[in-house]
Specification:
By secondary structure, this protein is an alpha/beta fold. It has 16 helices and 8 strands.
Length: about 350
């Protein structure tokens, strides 16, 4: 199976070469694998780094694309279009071509591309393949209090969430799919909330549409592992923690930053229990986990497997059906943002983290 690895880049001169090297480029990549680098209007030397990677690689193995419209959706979609054009020039069967999404600030562990391609070659059509984004040991050792708190909260919430097979939230940087399926699903699309802010999590929204239109499935490949950058987390730990790592709208993060000074944010990362924002951040993280990993799957599939308490709680909310990906996600995020509402009351009655 031929593969195209697409990396969108905006001012990524510092990390791009390492990310590409971890994927096997410019030298050492698997046969029949092409790297597609999409510059999204960089002001630094990203294009120079791209050109050097292309120069050192075998001819035709690295494609450089420039996409002026900024944003992950335009950049990822431009990479998919370039991949399709290259595949057609090579007279490849698009149903036998896999597109791997990657990020310029992520290190992919050995065998990542091979494992993803192997799973894609055996999975049925209309399937999204998802690798594993894991926390680097060095980060956990540097910020042990933050790491332990995150794991305790997540563990305390796990029994309230849907079974893994029915989860619908995907990590953009470790996803892959057949190129033909991607375009059948309509590709990545820009969508906005009621306030006009762009919704992120573009691959989650792609999957929600694919499930609705083509009964798409998702399979995980734990042996295909990657180490994401933690720069956003380090940049403002309380906000990242409060969203459970989910990519919220720009205004949402701006609101958190306006309420939490950078000095307090730095303290939260080192010693969250000494921070005055711990209670609000914990409650927000719990609501996000329940909304995204418990209620969102039920919004789009009422038959999703979950704890009976969660199903009864979902029924009690009397939510209107949301067939669209943007509408469903926006509803889940609205629930996650409602302080002292029904989600807080439900969670407090079923976990130890309620004060």
């Amino acid at each position: 199976m031929d593969a195209f690895v697409v990396i969108p880049c905006l001012d990524e001169q510092d990390g791009l070469a390492a990310a590409c090297q971890s994927l096997g480029f410019p030298q050492g990549s698997l046969p029949h694998t092409t790297l597609v680098l999409v510059d999204n209007g960089s002001k630094d030397k990203t294009l120079d780094v791209m050109a050097e990677i292309q120069r050192m690689a075998q001819p035709g193995r690295v494609i450089i694309v420039e996409e002026a419209q900024q944003g992950y959706v335009p950049a990822r979609h431009a990479g998919a279009i370039a991949s399709r054009e290259a595949a057609m020039d090579l007279e490849l069967d698009l149903n036998e071509v896999v597109l791997l999404q990657a990020d310029a600030d992520t290190i992919y562990l050995p065998e990542y591309v091979r494992c993803m391609c192997l799973k894609a070659s055996t999975a049925p059509s209309m399937t999204i393949i998802e690798g594993a984004a894991i926390t680097a040991r060095e980060f956990a050792q540097r910020y042990p209090e933050y790491d332990v708190l995150s794991r305790k909260i997540d563990g305390a919430m796990s029994h309230l969430l849907v079974d893994d097979a029915d989860d619908v939230v995907l990590d953009d940087k470790v996803c892959a799919f057949r190129l033909e399926d991607y375009f059948a699903w309509g590709g990545h699309q820009r969508e906005f909330d009621d306030a006009g802010d762009e919704l992120f999590a573009e691959t989650t929204r792609l999957y929600l549409r694919a499930k609705t239109s083509h009964h798409a499935k998702r399979v995980r490949v734990d042996e295909a592992a990657a180490l994401p950058s933690r720069r956003k987390l380090i940049g403002h730990a309380p906000a990242y923690f409060a969203s459970a790592g989910f990519p919220r709208q720009s205004r949402w993060f701006a609101d958190w930053r306006s309420r939490c000074a950078q000095s307090d944010a730095d303290l939260f990362l080192v010693d969250p229990f000494a921070s005055g924002y711990l209670k609000n951040a914990v409650k927000s993280r719990q609501r996000h986990e329940l909304a995204l990993f418990g209620l969102l799957p039920l919004i789009v599939n009422e038959k999703a497997s979950c704890d009976e308490a969660t199903r009864s709680f979902f029924s009690s909310l009397n939510l209107d059906p949301c067939p669209g990906s943007a509408a469903a996600l926006q509803l889940a995020l609205h629930l996650a943002d409602e302080q002292d509402g029904p989600l807080d009351a439900f969670i407090c009655g079923r976990t130890q983290w309620c004060d």
